[in-house]
Design goal:
This protein has 326 residues and is α/β, with parallel strands linked by helices. The protein has helices at residues 45-57, 76-83, 99-109, 123-130, 135-147, 167-173, 202-210, 275-280, 286-294, 321-324; strands at 3-4, 10-11, 13-17, 62-66, 89-94, 113-117, 151-158, 179-185, 215-217, 227-231, 237-241, 254-257, 262-264, 273-274. The protein has one domain: TIM Barrel. Helix 1 (45-57) runs parallel beside helix 2. 43% of the residues are buried.
Length: 326
Amino acid sequence: MMLTDTFGREHNYLRISLTDVCNFRCLYCMPEDVSFMPSNQLMSHEEIKAIATEYVKLGVTKIRLTGGEPLVRKDADKIILSLSKLPIELTLTSNGFLVDKYIEVFKQAGIRSLNISLDTLDANKFFSITKRDNFQLVWNHIKLLIENGFHVKVNVVAMKGINENEINDFVALTKDLPLHIRFIEFMPFNGNHWQGANVLTYKEILEQVESKFSILKLKDEVHDTAKKFTAYNHVGTFAIISTITEPFCAGCNRMRLTADGKMKNCLFSSSESDILSAYRNGDDILPIIKSNLLSKFKERGGQFDEAYFSMKADEMQNRSMVKIGG
């Protein structure tokens, strides 16, 4: 069985947010007046396993755990090990702060690839973005993952006026380190002060890289969100996730579960389906999952079009990034 939307897109990738809590305060993700959900509102680790199992029955073959910061959840190890027993590829997105404490859990769970968020290589700028003085710790943990044989993708939200002058510094890292740098166009969410003028575009990023490096385009798969490249004679790669200027919705195979058990069929969708309440009431959640997917828009949740530069983030009907789980 496979979950298919009205545009014929097959969906086999589920992203599950474990919590809306994070130990960083990144400006593009977390609103200044954020409040966190009470624990009884969140899916328990047993509920996460049970609900994930239903998605697997419908053809899900890959699950990514997100947050907030998934590793701040006290039972994150139980969740990781429990989900690892399903016939899926299991992976995780993290800010890297607690990686050293979970590295053996990752190995035991068969996790081979992790995405680590890091928007700057400058310690002072790191503090200004995250409100935490932890650059060196995160960088050490990225190197620890590499030393332990993990496939490490580094997620860099590219923002004008903040880190646009570091693009080539990140690409330079891939010369000797097997890192996979992914530049992400700055995206609008409630409370993140997004403006179109702050978007460092796919073309602008590529122009910067080409001004310093000889690059080769790599093959993108049908479901890839990132346009992949490598610089000549580099062991790592870099990619650009062009959500704003060149969306990749035609190949989308992703679904999302928020930490409180709401299904979103797109990062930008205004509507949600309450999977957790239905599960707790003993209802069959399969029709709800299917119905949610059939309401999926062709592109970017139906929330914005090519005139994105004039759009106001707080006029969108959506959660803040930390409440969605990325």
